[in-house]
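Deliverable D5.2: sample structural annotation.
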Amino acid sequence: MLLGRLEEELGNPQAADDYYRSAIRALEEIDMPVRLRDCHVEYAQVLEARGDIEAAYRQLKLAVAADKTAAVETVGEIRLGGAYAAVQRQVEPRLRLRH
């Protein structure tokens, strides 16, 4: 994302697009939905600043989809280093009460 932002600031929109697309592919491959969402949002802002509203809208839709994935994964698993089991013991009873 940083390289995409840099290329955009330097006036190289094609290179910026290439870096954003590369970052999106990499984040999809390594399954990082929160960072993926952030990347789509940032890219949408870049596209909007260029006046490409349709492409910006597509990126925002993808950000929303990634955010839904992130929310589901967060509820399903809370990973806080070695504290995962302790947090899981605290959260699971509360989740059962909500059903």
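Annotation notes: The radius of gyration is 17 Å. Residues 74-88 have pLDDT under 50 and may be disordered.
The annotation will be released with the project's public dataset once the embargo ends.
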